Amino acid sequence: MKEAEVHRSIEAIWRIESAKIIAGLMRYVRDIGIAEDLAQEVFIVALERWPDTGIPDRPGAWLMAAAKRRAIDLLRRNQLRDRKYEDLSHEIDLHHEPDFDAALSDPVGDDLLRLIFMTCHPLLSAEARVALTLRLLGGLTTEEIASAYLVPESTVAQRIVRAKRTLADARVSFEVPEKAELDSRLSSVLEVIYLMFNEGYAATAGANWIRPLLCQEALRLGRILAEIAHEESEVHGLVALMEIQASRFKARVGPTGEPILLMDQNRTLWDRLLIRRGLAALERARKMGRPLGPYALQAAIAACHAQAPTASETDWVRIAALYEALARATLSPIVELNRAVAVAMAFGPSFGLQMVDELSNEPSMKNYHLLPSVRGDFLVKLGRTAEARQEFERAASLTRNERERELLLKRAFEFGNEG
């Protein structure tokens, strides 16, 4: 294997394992900044060594063990002001390897979940909580987080630095909070898990359109959270949404990784078990007796697609109504864009086009690639193919995902000689 290929493999492994390593290190160093620095150090070691030695059979365990040794060395060098060192010595054996696999799969003492609640502490602003948790648990770069939130990258970087400093100065504990405090952090935790899943479902950048393992990790965390906060309808709503969306993975990309859009997917490839799990979670949310929140509403929309035997049998009128309720609950321009698609499918493309044109004046949507992409779709249906081609070309210039760019350029080419 060529060195460049090894480096790509290492980077992929790192995206999968980094959150677990940082969370595992938190047991020892109790400082997010130090944990991330140590994790980054072993990543660099892997980049230097593995091209020569080969990638280990269990790369995650190798990285975890190497990071643990560095943490122990740090504890010994600093002695952690004697008292902290003595406290930690009661919890860990510095001379024996712990069972990392058991620790990471423990359904009760899940380090990743502890880390989520730590990074979503009320001391931090809502924006900082999400940015920090996505950085540490989702393995997203500051650029990817900025794109997800439609804000400058420098803003995200500053939020992360300040958040780490705030948590360190306040000595925030590494634990899942008690019930009273859990409620105050839940909305941020849900948002973080939601964005982790979305990044895996439609990657912001890179050579792959989907990152299934990131979705799997978000779904795993969501299921754990549903056990802890089982009386919260929105927890079940988010789990329902992720279960149903994850059911489409086999149909979502073609043989060479090319994107396959929802209306073109082979629905026989959808995972019926995940759909059943999602519908059951949605029913749990409904049985709470409260109005459906944003996640449950999105799950209800996903359920409409999942329950339609074919694309042509989709209940777009119901989906448009659900999107209207979701738009009132979130006041999000991206939700409005999705609502425009539903309205166009239910009542005609001219209605959708009018809604999209109104969104064009929204500052946060100026460089959002899906706006011209959706507009191009509507123009095609209205027979305005020359204009559609320009919209697809603009959308292709704005996206940073290679697969999505290829798809958009292909669509532009299809209408290049028409109009």
From TrEMBL:
Occurrences of domain DUF6596 (ranges): 185-285
Report which superkingdom the organism of origin falls in. Answer: Bacteria
User: Which InterPro entries does UniProt cross-reference here?
Assistant: DUF6596, RNA_pol_sigma-70_dom, RNA_pol_sigma70_r2, RNA_pol_sigma70_r4_t2, RNA_pol_sigma_r2, RNA_pol_sigma_r3/r4-like, WH-like_DNA-bd_sf
**Coiled coil ranges:** none
The residues covered by the RNA polymerase sigma factor 70 region 4 type domain are 115-167
Q: Where is the RNA polymerase sigma-70 region domain?
A: 24-79
This chain belongs to the protein called RNA polymerase subunit sigma-24
Q: What is the lineage of its organism?
A: Bacteria, Bacillati, Bacillota, Bacilli, Bacillales
